[in-house]
Design brief:
Layout (H helix, E strand, L loop, with lengths): L4 E3 L2 E4 L4 E6 L2 H6 L1 E7 L6 E6 L6 E3 L7 E6 L4 E6 L8 E8 L13 E4 L3 E6 L1
Amino acid sequence: QVQLAESGGGLVQAGGSLRLSCAAPGFIFSTYSIGWFRQTPGKAREFVAEIMRSGGSTYYADFVKGRFTISRDNAKNTVLLQMNSLKREDTAVYYCAAMNAVVGIWSGASSRARYWGQGTQVTVSS
């Protein structure tokens, strides 16, 4: 069973920073782009950011643009999500996912996810 493993979540004050990490088997990084999603209780999982296999293209949800940065280190089979200027509304469980290739126009829909990690909790306090 393919497993992606998130780490780096925790409790942080509003305005602070956290860096999430997503580790996965090597074949995942050579085959898939990697996305980050988040979910709060009672709500659907929502797209946060994605980085393509080459690392040359990235996509962000509007609500994180300018605050979050996604990057990948293929040599280490790791994708990072640097989260700055955190807000209370960023509180959620964050998941990384191996994403199937884009067909047509890019979409951050969770239906593109082929494999998921177990999630890591991020809590932002006021």
